[in-house]
Every structure is written in C-alpha cells, then in structure tokens.
Amino acid sequence: MQPFYPSTRGRGLMLCLLGAVFQLQAAALPGPLVDTQWLADHLDSVVVLDIRRDPQSFIRKAGGGGEVAGVQACGAKGGGGGVSGHIPGAALIEWKEIATKEKTGGVELHDTLPTKEAFETLMQERGVNRDSAVVIANPGDGAAAVAEGTRLYWTLKYFGHDQVALLDGGVAKWADEKRTIEYGRTKPARGDWQATAERRALLASLDDVQRASTTADAQILDVRPADYYLGLVHKADKVAAKGHVPGAKNLPFILYVKESTKGSTFYGKDELKRVSEQLGIATDKPTITHCNTGHLASSGWFVMHELLGQTRSSLYDGSMNEWAADPARPVSTRLE
After folding, report:
1. Same-domain status, 36 and 165
2. Model pTM?
C-alpha cells in the first residue's frame, strides 16, 4: 500500500486543526492571581516564567540540602537568591533581561523597559506562544521579590499580552507545601510570541509626572519605604537627591503583601482598599506609581490597576532615578 501524503491544502487544514487543539489546551486564567493549587491542577496547560536576580538559585539546591533557604545571608529579603530550585518546567527569566539600562539626555536610567524586539526574542526563547497562558513565579521570600514578578507582569501587559497571572506566594509557597521542586536548566521549545501593542497608557512619562505634580488630574503614589519618601535616606548610586516628587503620597510596597519566607502573598482586595484610603490614597482616581527606578512601583501599579480595578493607572519607569537627575526639578521631603 502506498503511503498517504496529504495535499498542501490538506496539510494546511491539519495544521489549523492542531492549532485549534493547542489553543483549547491553554488554561483559562481565573484572574491576575493564581494560587499554588490552581497551578498544580493546570501545570500542563500554562507556561511558567520564573523571574529572579540570581540564576544559580534557579539551578542549584541551597546549601544544607534544603529546598527553601529563606532570608539571604545578607539579611535582605526578596533579593531573588533566597529560594532554590524551580517549579517543574518553569523557564528562567533573569531580572537584568527585563530591567535594562539606557541613557536619556545624559542621564543613565536603571531598570528600564526593554525594547520590543529584545522582549519578543526573550519570550520566544522561553517558550511563550501568542496564545499561551503565562503564570509568573517569583522566589516569594519577600515583597521585593514579589515586585520582580509584578514588573514582568506589567511588561507583558505593556506589550499586549493579557493571558498572564502571578503565582501568589511564589516558589517559596510551592516548596513549603512539599510540591515537586526541580533543579538545573530548562530548555523550552521556541515559541512564536510577538508584541501586539505598546500600551502607552500603562507607561507614565516625565511630562505626565510633572503635570500630575502641579494639577489634580492624577495622583502620584510613591511606594518606597517611608524613610526614602521623607528623605532620611536615598539610593545615592541611582537617585541624586533625597525625597519624593512633590505632591506624591506614600504607600510603602511592603504593605501590599504579607511577607514570609514560606511564601509572601498579597493581602485581600478589601484590606488593600482600606489601607490605601486610610493613607489618603484614592482608589477611584487616575494614579501614577513611582519608586527609585520603576521596580517596586510595579507592585503599586499591579494593586491599583489589576486588583483594585483602577484601570487609569500607570507606572513611571524613570521614577526618582530620572526625576532627581535634574537639580531644577523640585524634590519634597514633607508628608503630603
């Protein structure tokens, strides 16, 4: 019997049918957050991206054979190296791959948005397809690690991908529940992901912040700890002056999540709304979030835009790094 080879038209139909099947297999995400049980139940139908600063913690088991190392040796939570190993099949995203450096007007900006082309290549290399349901895992051992996850989430949203969620509690919670942890590098098949948009409404410019600072069009939200906001300390290597953008209100990022080395999880929507309003933050007003470089500000954007539904919220990517670079721009150290 002669083997059957479908016509070109037939092959095209078969590929379309296969594509439809794969689309049906992609999980329908329940919202911007998923818990560990949901991920365990849908692990075969999502792409897990693990974002962290220390790639070795993704690959190697922590000293002493433990799966969760908790707080780093330096005592700083959320640096991305406190939790070792990864969720089965997860693809590693290094922080430096989504937080780049660029010079604008002679100012070196840190942790800025990557180019569309660079981000497309990164997503393709990590196995993301156009129709993939993406779950972002972070180490989960502190609020700063959670903010690494929200920054990747914001970047995917900025470039047009809506099928994305954060794993609440991150890898630390997954490991603490005695779920399977793997070590070593993963090699996902190349994906076909493409950026379908550049959503400028999610990205606040310097001009937007200057306008908001002097008008009532939008509120500015500084998510740094109070000692940075009030000018007691500052990151001198990235920010030229102490204090905050005039008019900005302060809601420290550590108030968004319940920190734990066993998995830092977001507080409930009612709690986030209550605390915001008690600190003078209007949850029904357009909001621009900022921090030192745009890293921590992404957690403020995530809470306002995704959890509290304030869809007129944006992230100031330049943050105090850009704002304070020009000594002619005012900086405030008083409680607004």
Report:
1. yes
2. 0.88
